[in-house]
Fold this protein.
Amino acid sequence: MNIQIKNLNKDYIQEKGPTLKVLKDINLNISSGEKVALIGPSGAGKSTLIHIVGLMDSPTSGKVFINDIDCSLMDDNDLCDMRRKNIGFIFQFHYLLPDFTVLENILIPVWKDKVNKEKRALEILDQVGLTSKVNCLPNELSGGQQQRTALARALINNPKIIFADEPTGNLDRTIGVEIENLLFDFSKNSQATLVLVTHNQELACRTDRVINIIDGRMV
Ligand SMILES: Nc1ncnc2c1ncn2[C@@H]1O[C@H](COP(=O)(O)OP(=O)(O)OP(=O)(O)O)[C@@H](O)[C@H]1O
Ligand SMILES: [Mg+2]
């Protein structure tokens, strides 16, 4: 699936102080199957941008098109449907639910159909090397295992677009590379579009295109 971002702006109103302009006139086209890295200093607006393009937040102005569909015209149900069917998101902080097991956490995006999806969940857990941990709670896992669980959760729906916000930022380099390989293998095999935020130059170099965000602008 392709993505078009047109004249996108995001402001945060601050109680004290002037309005914070976090994204400033972002224009970007990403082709179907393309792998793009977003880099830039802390606070530049990278997470804000992928949350908006991943349909988890709305812009102050401007538009996002996914497969030529204007997402600003979608209601909450349409947005939810689009996210559930087509988008996989790996967060900067993995947000696993502490009271749910690894298997249950992975099934959350497909909860309505969890009985039928369990086979797929176990398959994907095998791919990320977590078969022995399916019944563990997140606090019984190492950081790398938690992030692999978050990766499995993002991939369970066979998404057409994957957003990954520093997926390996908090990990040991060896484990990080393993997770990156899984991510790249999946997007290659399924021809998914990949939008990746990273501070890691080596990881950025594995993508088709690197985009630099500085102070809310594309440079
Ligand atoms: N909900 C919010 N309310 C107010 N300001 C916010 C909010 N979310 C983010 N910001 C501000 O927006 C700016 C961009 O934040 P963002 O998280 O997008 O940065 P980032 O580029 O992802 O940084 P990092 O590399 O540290 O993750 C920051 O100055 C941040 O303080
Ligand atoms: Mg961020």
In short: The chain has seven helices and ten strands. The two ends are 24 Å apart (CA to CA). Residues 46-47, 92, 165 surround magnesium ion (ligand 2) (CB under 6 Å). The first strand starts at residue 3 and ends at 12.
